[in-house]
């Protein structure tokens, strides 16, 4: 089984003129970077704008790229800076705008084809609730969680991208995970209650 | 994330559960048109020749140019220090030159005011007249006695004065001493006169003033004559008075005697 080519090699190949190396690199990271931006910016249109700016900067940095760290760290550092720049020019409006986007996205969550409608609805509700909980997290905790989930960065890398110490990054990530876990547990509890009542109802009907 | 402590492992376990749920819930992707635009931009950029990083070579070259220029400029401005013995030698030479220059300028300063202050006063004019008369007397002697000329070294100024057409012939009143007396006087005066010529006029007079009390009368007389030639009549008058106190019977040269008589009158 062939190991995938490391990101750094792909970027070096692109620096040397190989456009297909960039396509491979972009395919690997496009989803993660886009979601990282979307969860922070809130609006899809704004997220697309920031997303394009990030990749434009990566392309422009091609000539002076050097392997000083993982490519993901470099990429998410650029993304972090672009998001900060975006909020400097336009203050965040998460609470007003996020519901619509989150609802749309949650509605688009795919499920198994033969899944029962109740389960599909439950999954969508779970996703919507998780995304809403994520939007309600403090900015620093949300960013730490997204860098961990979308960029798959280590605590040290998160600390480096956000410009804080490792323990601070760890604390932020821990708080984010604990809060999300609590919300998910509450939902699970309701879901199980719903299932129990639904089963009782079916029994009654039956 | 590589767990390294129990805390990290606990965090990782917590993240694993939430991550799975998050990935199920979140699958947002960028739109296709954005993908196409970004990939097109990347291809365009890749087709361009890569910009060489010229900043480092350019900055190094600039630093070299500036450094070399500064070094050259500094070496031009500052000569290397000479060895200590050269410094000492040049300093002693400089000191000697400075001393000579100071002495020269000092003597010039002392001579100039005397020459400049006197012309306006009648006394100074009188002194200059007497001086010229004494010079004429010497010229007469030289013409009359070639031995005298041979014994006396003549300075350029004196020779010019002697050759000058303004010098009138010796008056009839100026009489040469008898030959025997003149010879003795000539023998006495010749080396002394030469000695006087060698000395700087003003300084030699002032320097010799300390020793004049014990000097020979003829030397003293010569100094008084020199003072008169320089127009320093006041000093000459004082010197003559002192001379007369010590040598009341010493016969003065005729010019000096006439000047003395005029002073008495």
Describe the overall structure.
The complex is a heterodimer of chains A (206) and B (265). Chain A has 206 residues and is mostly helical. Chain A has helices spanning 7-15, 19-41, 44-60, 71-89, 94-107, 117-136, 139-149, 155-162, 166-205. Residues 95-103 and 200-206 of chain A have low confidence and may be disordered. By secondary structure, chain B is mostly helical. Chain B has helices at 6-25, 32-47, 55-77, 84-117, 122-144, 146-151, 156-163, 179-198, 201-209, 217-229, 233-246, 254-264. In chain B, helix 5 (122-144) crosses helix 10 and helix 5 runs antiparallel to helix 12 (254-264). Chain B is rod-shaped. Residues 113-118, 153-177 and 202-206 of chain B have low confidence and may be disordered.
Task: Give a quick precis of the structure.
The complex is a heterodimer of chains A (206) and B (265). Chain A is mostly helical.
Question: What topology does this entry show?
Answer:
The complex is a heterodimer of chains A (206) and B (265).
Chain A: H1 7-15, H2 19-41, H3 44-60, H4 71-89, H5 94-107, H6 117-136, H7 139-149, H8 155-162, H9 166-205
Helix pairs in contact in A: 1-2, 2-3, 2-4, 2-7, 3-4, 4-8, 5-6, 6-9, 7-9, 8-9
Chain B: H1 6-25, H2 32-47, H3 55-77, H4 84-117, H5 122-144, H6 146-151, H7 156-163, H8 179-198, H9 201-209, H10 217-229, H11 233-246, H12 254-264
Question: What do the pLDDT scores of chain A average to?
Answer: 81
Shape of chain A: globular
Helix share of residues of chain A? Answer: over 70%
- The helix count of chain A comes to 9
Mean pLDDT of chain B: 68
Q: Pick out the low-confidence regions of chain A.
A: 95-103, 200-206
Terminal CA distance of chain B: 130 Å
The percent range for strand residues of chain A is under 5%
Tally of helical runs of chain B: 12
Rg of Cα set of chain A: 20 Å
Oligomeric assembly:
heterodimer
- N-to-C span of chain A: 53 Å
Name the beta content range of chain B: under 5%
Which structural class fits the helix and strand makeup of chain B? mainly alpha
Tally the beta strands of chain A.
Answer: 0
